[in-house]
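[[Per-residue structure]]
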Amino acid sequence: MKVRPKGAKFIEENPPAEKVIKQAKASYGTPVIDGKVDSIWSKADIIKIDQYQQAWKGASGVAKALWDENNLYLLIQVEDDQLNNSNQNPWEQDSVEIFVDQNNGKTPFYEEDNDGQYRISFDNVATFNPDSIAEGFESETSISGTNYNIEVKIPLKAITPRRNTKIGFDVQINDAKDGSRISAAAWNDASGTGYMDTSVFGELILVGVTDPGTGGSGGSGGSGGSSGKESSGKDTTGETETPKGSESPDTSAVEVTVSEDGKATAKVSESAFVEAVKKVENETVKIEVKGSEQAKSVVVNLDTSLIKTATAADIKNIEIDTGMANVELPISLFANSREDAEIDLQINKVEAADLSQEVRTKVGNNVVFDFSLSVGGEKLSNFGSNQKVKVSYPYTLQAGVKPGRVVIYFIDDNGKFEIVKNGRYNNGQVQFKAKHFSKYVAIPVEVSLKDIYETSWATESIEALAAREIVKGVSADSFLPMKEVTRAEFVQMIVQSFELESKGTINPFSDVKAGDWYEKAVLTAYELGIVKGKADGSFGVNEKISRQDMAVITFSALKVAGINVSSTSAAIAFEDSADISEYAKEAVSAIQQAGIINGMPGGRFAPKDTANRAQSAVIIYKLIDEL
């Protein structure tokens, strides 16, 4: 007799909203399965694994996909702060799960010989659901500190792969600590039911070659592997060449001229720009500058007349990838520029001799980059209100350094260091959004809070925020993660994270006094319309903040910052939705669907419950991704 699941009644009464189906692309190519990030992966799109299925944020990562006439290939790069395989259950270990629905049937069950779940641990032990899909499967892993890469080959036996084929697909990262899984993050599925239901998968579109057989013969990448429940994977014997004619020359790329002293220069021609416009994605045109990776500096020049071309094509950003660093310039920066002017983007690796002794001491061996942008010979130092330029560059995470502790600093002309709150390390690169150009450097920061490990699910978030000085301990080595958060404390964290500014001169609150540590944050939030007072004329600075008020303040801050968060989760009809105050309903729904604040056990939101410092840190750290 079948037992009715405990949650069946709730599901019947609260049917889930329409499932979100994300799409990603798999480029054509046949890699060597060795756990290494070979150059062939550079042409594959990045698939962000950031859909957390549990209430806290654990290990994170990205995936890339390739395909040929016989197989699907995946590279998954995982960032973690601890690797654990002490539990005998494979799903309770640090691992990656790959879900494939070859015919994209979207069935609520697994079809025989078509659907499968592949789980690979960080130490390359593979398990399969069903066992029959193990034949022909290969995997290899590589570990760097507490981070790891997994590279796999999955035979596509149920279909004939060809250009524009859609495959049901998802990928999930399991994060384990002390013998238990504490977090699971997927690309598409928020429900955690992908092990039995293919309708929760996203879609992978095969691109990058004409139909098989028209451009040469692609290799299979080997056929070894293992059968049964476990596999250690096998090396392939070689790499099959990409078929000739499968890729056309990149006429949008720009070559550089490098002088003897290591200075590279590149001119973006009209023809290269027009070709790049043809490949525009997400309202962004990408210019690739080749040959400057080893240079000490690079200058990229383009005419402002090209801005008119971009505007006509509804392009919002110009992304310039120099190899040394990647810079995304909003078109709006050049709205008032003359058409006959020239734009110069310059990136320098600063010599240690050009820094003061005090700056050199703090920087250590980390590379300092100096960015500058000029239009018509005039330097554009500040980008204006609500204007930011996205910047990223390669960064090697040293063994033992946790990703969240890598902090980006702006160094001013007087040698003063200022933290860029939105900066972070992400899979071999540091990335941040700059309000102005100058010198920037990424430096690992030590955090000495000893009591944060009692809330292991929030440790990464607390450390990252403490490193950025968004939160502080109650003493030099204590954070008190389980202590409840006051309204003043949460507003302080929001204002610090978003780097919000106002005159802060209007004070309608009876309990906010001049000189109070929260005065500037509360008055800034009030003037910007993020918070309101209470009926008695106070702000309630020492009152414990409720979960629904956290949602309202967070939602308001996002709107003030001009950030439109995307829905990554289906809307939930909470069992206690009637308890959510009318003024908070919109905010709770939006923040829940964005995955910033999740529900509580039993299908509740618990709007009137208070939150502790650890929970608040997790929420604030998630917001950094949106800044």
Q: What stands out?
A: Confidence is low (pLDDT under 50) at residues 1-17, 210-249. The chain is about 15% helix and 25% strand.
